[in-house]
Amino acid sequence: SSYVAAENRYDDMQYRRCGTSGLMLPAVSLGLWHNFGDLHPGGTQRAVLRRAFDRGVTHFDLANNYGPPYGQAETNFGRIFASDLKPHRDELIISTKAGYDMWPGPYGQGGGSRKYLIASCDQSLKRMGLDYVDIFYSHRFDPDTPLEETMGALDHIVRSGRALYIGISSYDHEQTVRAAAIARDLGTPLLIHQPRYNMFDRWIEDDLLDTCEQEGMGVICFSPLAQGLLTTRYLSGIPRNSRVGMGSRHLRPENLDEQTMGTVRALNEIAMDRDQSLAQLALSWILREERITSVLVGASNVTQLDADIDALSGNQLTDDDLIRIETVLAE
Ligand code: NDP
Predict the structure, then answer these.
(1) How many other C-beta atoms can be found within 10 angstroms of the C-beta atom of residue 92?
(2) With a threshold of 0.95, does the pTM exceed it?
């Protein structure tokens, strides 16, 4: 059926400024890593994207190798974009990335060479049927390529009209400082950093958050729910249609050990005391930090997406809540 976007789509979403840039991002953004390949029904993919847009989620995050198979998430997104979202192109921030292995031979194995990044960007645009992406990322730091080459390629991608902004993902503190300086000198400042951040992985608290603030960069956190661990998904076994149940390489049964599940159950108690779901608590907890621009959630259905967005209208975290959470995480 043809899609008519909800008229009230901007009424409730919160938008945060991305670093010191002119760009605002929704506090909840949608990632297409796992749930938009061949393993998930196309009808659900379309419903999730429509619902996201209808609720003010203006940012969709992709990468060259999202699937499975590699490239399929961009292809599927491109199809749904063409049928449903194309009239709204100027209301959308669409990002993609290159950094991991993608095609055979020495130029498609990932990293940060100019050859790989520019070719991959062109492939992504073609798969998605786009003239440009809003943000193009170096998906990971490449120790074997001069950072000047990688940043120079990103700068070229912007100057040639393939992207509006550039970002980096999973660069550490020192790599970020160097990348930001090179990009600034080239005249294409880094807009945003995309690190993993959730209750179970707090590495960015050491110095990356400070670094991004000093560099004027926004921060968008991936796997804010630890891929579903920080939800009720695995509280009573492994559902067949879950990421673990479907045999993901990235989340496995051994990640659901007793220690972890004990912590998850204790966090779930705190969430219930706050009249929230655990997923909502996990997202509220990240968004307590004002320097974080957005949480980048994955959702395998509309119900999950709705619940995740509803975290924004939940009760404020009190000091007491924060102390309880710290106590559980320290155990
Ligand atoms: P999350 O931590 O948000 O995990 C998403 C999964 O959690 C869903 O697939 C679903 O699991 C479960 N879930 C989500 N909401 C709920 C809910 N309300 N109740 C119960 N379960 C829920 O994020 P991802 O790991 O998927 O990563 C999000 C995005 O971040 C990616 O799509 C990608 O864009 C980006 N990313 C970037 C990386 C990088 O290197 N830059 C690396 C990884 C991700 P289920 O599928 O089992 O239903």
Answers:
(1) 16
(2) yes
CA–centroid distance, residue 74 to ligand 1 (Å): 17
Q: List pLDDT tens digits, range 10-19.
A: 999 999 999 9
Bridge partners of 169, per DSSP, are 194
Rounded Cα distance, 164 and 135, in Å: 6
In angstroms, the CA 293 to CA 142 distance is 25
Residue 289 tokens, joined: 């930090």
- Residue 233's closest CA among 223, 242, 245? 242
Beta bridge partners of 201: 198
Pocket test for ligand 1, best of 231, 278, 284 (most atoms within 8 A of CB): 231
61: nearest Cα among 26, 32, 87, 91: 32
In order of 30, 40, 74, 77, 328, the CA distances from 44 in angstroms are 14, 7, 16, 12, 35
Pocket of ligand 1 (CB under 6 A): 31-35, 61, 139, 169-170, 194, 222-228, 231, 233, 242-243, 279, 296-300, 304, 307-308
**pLDDT tens-digit profile of 288-302?**
999 999 999 999 999
Give distance in angstroms: CA of 276 to centre of ligand 1: 18
- Ligand 1 atom closest to 243 (CA): 47
Reported ipTM: 0.99
Question: Residue 25 has which token pair?
Answer: 């991002």
